[in-house]
Amino acid sequence: VTAPPRLDEFARIARFFAPLAGVGALGLRDDVALIDGPPGTQYVLKTDAIVEGVHYLPDDPPMQVAQKLLRVNLSDLAAKGAAPLGYLLTTALPPSHDEAWLEQFSKGLAADQAAYGIFLLGGDTVMTPGPATLSVAAIGTVAAGRAVLRSGARAGDIVHVSGTIGDAALGVLAAKGQELGIGAAEKAFLVDRFRLPQPRLNLGARLAGLASAMMDISDGLAADFGHLCAASGLGGVIEAARVPLSPAAQAALARDPARLATVLGGGDDYELLFTAPAEAAEKIRALSAGLGLPITAIGRVEPGEGVRLLDAAGRAITVEAAGYRHF
Ligand code: ADP
Ligand code: MG
After folding, report:
1. Is 268 in the pocket of ligand 1 (CB under 6 A)?
2. Which atom of ligand 1 is nearest to the CA of 20?
3. How many angstroms separate the CA atoms of 203 and 196, rounded?
4. What is the pLDDT of residues 145-188, one digit of tens each?
5. What distance in angstroms lies between residue 159's CA and the mean position of ligand 1's atoms?
6. Which residue is closest in CA terms to ligand 1's atom 15?
7. Which atom number of ligand 1 is nearest to the Cα of residue 31?
8. How far is Cα 49 from Cα 57, in angstroms, rounded to an integer?
9. Can you give the pTM of this predicted structure?
10. Protein residue with its CA nearest to atom 19 in ligand 1
11. pLDDT tens-digit profile of 75-94?
């Protein structure tokens, strides 16, 4: 019998990998690394892997698996205000992933290369007994010193999110066959939000110079807000009633209010979470209108440490699994 691992994902990174980190690694406490490029620019580096049965379901269409793999990486570039350049791809596939699977998978890559103006730069192709593991390393650029880090929040800053929160976490439940008691169109919307994230590259780029701190939401709103506040050496509060919900998520919540924990704690939204001084409100409103993308103020940054989630009456809400953690 193997004992369960004692260190979670973040403790592992802090203990074994952070001591190895060099200049530009941002202490392994941000979304990306930054390396000086040609004068006036920095390269932005990020890698993310997805595993069958963990990040995608065996029945997910291979085209969408490819697109999700690329987009979760592009989302981290977006969260720094960077523009994507290209990517490296490593595939470790069991025999179940045959040429027909690869045909569809590469079609998905081609579609997103066109959509985001990026190219494949290299990679590696290996066999595995399984499960399938796919890894992308994305490279982007940002004007030197313009990247928005997780660590720049100041006490009093307002906390904002793009889009709607919780759709992907509810979409996973729906994709796994859980009966949410909602209509077919609503269910399809939620599953699509899980399978096909929309990296907010345009918004991220325009927030450079406006946002004080930023990250993308991959582990869940509650956990990721905790990461941003910790990186900034501050605490913060989110008012749950202000968290923007899609009509489909609202319908799922109306059926079972306990699903609020899934909405606030679940991951995979790939929306942007950022802080900005109150004076930036007008510019943020204009940005939101210009892009046709909702941006919602949901809380504030405070002195101290730790984050609190409050309900409409100001009572503390505990989110059971504070974000998805490997190990
Ligand atoms: P995100 O949710 O933005 O993808 P993660 O939570 O996966 O970020 O990772 C947090 C930080 O730890 C990032 O800076 C990432 O580059 C770093 N990191 C994670 N795993 C490793 C590893 N095995 N070796 C080096 N750095 C790592
Ligand atoms: Mg990230």
Report:
1. no
2. 25
3. 18
4. 999 999 999 999 999 999 999 999 999 999 989 999 999 999 99
5. 23
6. 28
7. 3
8. 14
9. 0.95
10. 13
11. 999 999 999 999 999 999 99
